[in-house]
Amino acid sequence: MTAMRSIFAVAKRDFWQRARNKWFLIVTAVVVLAILGGGLLIAAGVEDEPAIDIGHVGTPPAALPALLDAVAVHFDLDYELHEFESRGAAEAALVEGDIAVAIDGRTVVWAKETSSLTNAMVTTALQELARQDTIETLGLSSDEVTQLLSPALPAVETLEEPDPERAVRQGAAYAGTLVLLMSILMFGQFVLLGVLEEKSNRVAEVVLSRVRPIELLAGKVIGIGVLGLAQLLVFAAAALALVSMIDLAELPNLSEVGVSVILGVVGWFVLGYAFYAVLYAAAGSLVSRQEDAQGVGWIPMILLMPAYFLALSALQNPDLPIVKVGSMLPALAPLVMPTRYAVAAGDTALWEVGVAILVTVASTYLVILFAARVYRGGILSTRRTKLRDAYRGTSL
Predict the structure, then answer these.
(1) Burial of residue 121, with CB atoms counted within 10 A of its CB: 0-12 exposed, 13-18 middle, 19 or more buried
(2) Which of 100, 144, 223, 253 could be a cystine partner for 140, CB 3.0 to 4.6 Å?
(3) Could you give the angle at the alpha carbon of 109 between the alpha carbons of 107 and 115, nearest 5°?
């Protein structure tokens, strides 16, 4: 059997072994439903907020509806004004939940808890109504009112044009970073546990009678990696479907930003997974019991967690020197560079992205050589093996 056929056979076995696991399928389905259902619920809550029912004791002043209309437009709210004959009728409606708030002259009445946004809307309208009454009482001219209420505003200048899409990109980048971290962690753990299972049930001895250790390592990493990539593509398809169904005026470029972040997540998952999966495989080959898995699983975490925290820093300030340097270091780049590029695509040079990719690929090759040797030295050991002993035990 040629090397490529051996690697393909191992990859196919590991892929289907995990893909047919019912818990993997359930988790994948739940996440997809959460993306679609949760996103649509949030969008529906943003787009279709119910009208606020406002009660008024007696006939409202003629100017009040127009003032409420103006304030409602400013706060982006809808409302309905209901008239009650008495204070008691309005209070009964409040208790029953038929109205959110009642107006009795200059008094705003709540049943129990207040809503800050609704309260601001109603009190602003009432303040303006009182101001108009005062102006009418004082007999001020329109020019005098204008001078009193609309003084000249100070000039406002910005040295740089504000970025209206920054908040959208930050939110999308954070979601992408989190998905990337969890995917690398989960499928890296799959590799570690797969190696450990084969050692504990002696399957590795049978498999290694037909394939070389480096072929077994490569097949396992590729098979589980393809499964991880497939799951990410399913999540990406769900996210794109959600973005296409959401039409928010406040987020006009959500689709464009979403596609850019998704492409970055998928591409950097391939690079990041390749780097870390071989470390997980090497770590798994050093132990022989499930109880020891957590003890060696922290080795890749030493690199992953600083990468995650640096990526969070990139969300707020992608121009920090430590962020720029970290985005081009092999162990940190898979999380930091896609975050930095998503937040500040226009300020991140393409050559920096290219350097990050080349450095990560080159470092992954060196890590594979190291991990393969450790894997070869520890995979057949029936006891816990020191890293130095596994590395020196055999050659590729």
Answers:
(1) buried
(2) 144
(3) 115
